[in-house]
Design a protein that fits this description.
78 residues; mainly alpha; two-stranded parallel ribbon; 4 helices; 2 strands; 5% strand; Aldolase_TIM; amino-acid biosynthesis; tryptophan biosynthesis; RibuloseP-bd_barrel
Length: 78
C-alpha cells in the first residue's frame, strides 16, 4: 500500500521487524520501524540495536588498540 500514498506521507512499519535484512528490504517503502519487542528480547540492548540497524559485522585482524577502540564505537572501515 505504501507506494500508493502521496508524497509527504510518513510510513511506519509497525511490527514483525527483527533483522537488518528486513529493515533494508522495507526501507524502500517505510520511513521508520517499530522494533521494540525485537530489541527487548535481548539482554544487551546496545548490541541488539546495532545488529538491527547495522547488520552483523565480522571484524578480523584488529591488532592495534586504536582500531579496537574505533570498532567499539561502530566504525566499520579501517
Amino acid at each position: 500500500l505504501a507506494p500508493k500514498l502521496g508524497h509527504g506521507v510518513t510510513v511506519i512499519s509497525e511490527s514483525g521487524i527483527n533483522t537488518y535484512g528486513q529493515v533494508r528490504e522495507l526501507s524502500h517503502f517505510a520511513n521508520g520501524f517499530l522494533i521494540g519487542s525485537a530489541l527487548m528480547a535481548h539482554n544487551d540492548l546496545n548490541a541488539a540495536v546495532r545488529r538491527v540497524l547495522l547488520g552483523e559485522n565480522k571484524v578480523c585482524g584488529l591488532t592495534r588498540a586504536q582500531d579496537a577502540w574505533a570498532y567499539s564505537y561502530t566504525a566499520r572501515y579501517f
